[in-house]
Amino acid sequence: MKHVLMTLPYTLDALEPMMSKETLEFHYGKHHQTYINKLNELILDTKYQDLSLVEIIADSEGGVFNNAAQVYNHDFFWKGLTPNQKELSSKLQSIIEENFSSLEEFKKDFTAKAVGHFGSGWAWLVQDENKKLQIVTTANAQTPLAGNLKPLLVCDVWEHAYYIDVRNARPSYLENFWKLVNWDFVEENLA
């Protein structure tokens, strides 16, 4: 199976002004595409060539794992954004409040972990096997799938995700991120 760059659910300029077309051209069009190209190159004529991303992540290490996980993480990131943000459903709002006391407290905690993550990586909202929501960060290409956690939402905190738009101001990037979160996607992942 040859892996291909996912089709974005919006145009490259749809997330402006929070995330520029230029950022998407580089982040999606170049960085994300490079992970796919490298993954396809690494899995050719191996036991991984006919497996899904999730299957590859579960059974690989080194370069194969890194590239498969980066493709998965980026796919998840793009799906978690929308130019047409809606309010949270009362059901999702209630689940977040049960786990974090309020939506504001959840955003504050998530932002603090994302901003405070040292180096490259990801900030995730996940659900554990007991259905409890948690905020975790992962370094480099790591993904919660490796820790038996169910991803619900992710924010890419690699510098390439925001440098064009806000330079090295990760807190400003997180402010913009909250204006783009696709709450419907989060709720679909909970189902």
CATH topology call of the largest domain: minor pseudopilin epsh fold
What's the helical proportion of residues? 40-55%
Number of helical regions: 8
Count the E strands.
Answer: 3
Radius of gyration: 16 Å
Backbone structural class:
mainly alpha
GO molecular function: metal ion binding; superoxide dismutase activity
EC number: 1.15.1.1
Subunit structure: Homodimer.
Domain Manganese/iron superoxide dismutase N-terminal: 2-81
What does this structure look like?
The protein has helices at residues 21-43, 53-59, 62-79, 90-100, 103-116, 163-166, 170-178, 183-190, and strands spanning 121-127, 133-139, 150-156. By secondary structure, it is mainly alpha-helical. The protein has two domains: 19-78, Fe,Mn superoxide dismutase (SOD) domain (Helix Hairpins), CATH 1.10.287.990; 88-188, Iron/manganese superoxide dismutase, C-terminal domain (minor pseudopilin epsh fold, 3-Layer(bab) Sandwich). The radius of gyration is 16 Å and the shape is globular. The model has no long low-confidence stretch (mean pLDDT 97).
Write the topology of this structure.
Layout: H1 21-43, H2 53-59, H3 62-79, H4 90-100, H5 103-116, E1 121-127, E2 133-139, E3 150-156, H6 163-166, H7 170-178, H8 183-190
Antiparallel strand pairs: 1-2, 1-3
Task: Please provide a brief summary of the model.
This protein has helices at 21-43, 53-59, 62-79, 90-100, 103-116, 163-166, 170-178, 183-190; strands spanning 121-127, 133-139, 150-156. It is mostly helical and 191 residues long.
